[in-house]
Amino acid sequence: MPAQRFDFPNGRGDQLAALLDLPDGPPRAYALFAHCFTCGKDVLAAARIARGLTQQGIAVLRFDFTGLGASDGEFANTNFSSNIADLLAAAEHLRATHAAPQLLIGHSLGGAAVLAAAADISGVRAVVTIAAPSDPGHVTHLLGDKLADIAAKGEVEVTLGGRPFRVQRQFLDDVTHHRLSDRIARLHKPLLVLHAPRDEIVGIDNASAIFTAAKHPKSFVSLDDADHLLSRPRDAAYVADVIAAWASRYLALATATASPEPQHGEGVLVEETGGGRLQQRVVVGKHRLLADEPVSVGGADSGPDPYSFLLAALGACTSMTLRLYAERKNLPLEGISVHLRHTKIHAADCEECETKTGKLDRIDREIVLRGPFDAAQRQRLLQIADMCPVHRTLTSEIQIRTSERA
Fold this sequence. Notes:
The chain is α/β, with parallel strands linked by helices. It folds into 3 domains: 251 residues, Rossmann fold, CATH 3.40.50; 41 residues, no CATH class; 89 residues, 2-Layer Sandwich (GMP Synthetase, Chain A, domain 3). The protein has an 8-stranded mixed sheet with strand order 1-2-4-3-5-6-9-10, sandwiched between helices. The longest helix has 23 residues.
């Protein structure tokens, strides 16, 4: 499925550029990815890991921190605290528009950021760090001989990764203020630490410090000869596979508790995904859909609401019935559109209805028929619309039997 690109506001009102990578079917879970220092959401490691996770059914939100990539703001005005605030804003936006992130993933300094932010993001069930420093102050070594100039002048332009950035003294003050060991000890969430023993940017001793500070359940996986940025595609693919396999124990993945899926013609399976308060996974044979409710009534608006599915069934049946009739009668039917709307009306306002008290359900169906028909042919097609099987089901007596499946 194509990725969704959009902007969302952070706490300062800056618009942050984001990208939501989605699997082909309904997401089994949602992850939030924090990129490395001075990188962006489109850095190859992040893109490749996200792609690998979507193949496992996990949707991944990645975004540019303030002042980086396509996001608003000035990098010089940011610091580790603002990165944490951006993460919280991203998590809240994901919660409001789709579902709360169940998995946090951070690469390099992004790993330190997710460790610092995890306790403040409700719904998180597992955390992953990749080549992360145990202390955010570790990044200051990248500034080299510019540290003294920054401290003396207040702001200096430095070159990082071949690109110029302006760094202020407040960045140094902020990054050295944070101590992660206490936050890691109080994480109270499953933690996976991924690190390469030969990482020349962030040494393996950082992984040891994170792992030692964390409480169980915790896991460590060596990335062997991978470099810090996971520049080889196979390394990023391996990381994605490991994360998906490890996280399956802790996330409410839809397939982990799914009932046997019905084959086509054997009915419909509907069950909670665990990825949202009201989000449902709809399985019809090989087809996968999402049902949800609008944000205004407590959902995440990640799929049509139940009544919309009902209208879709009637509309599809109407159009198919008209097409089959037109083919059988050799009518010049060039196209069909069916517009439907569901409302509640007072029974007293319906002259042709038998019920005269309370409220009734009403479906307004407007049909557009394209083709050179005469008046009699158009009238007959409208009569045929009322004969579609779903229409007849909805307007006849229906018996619904409910039982518990073992």
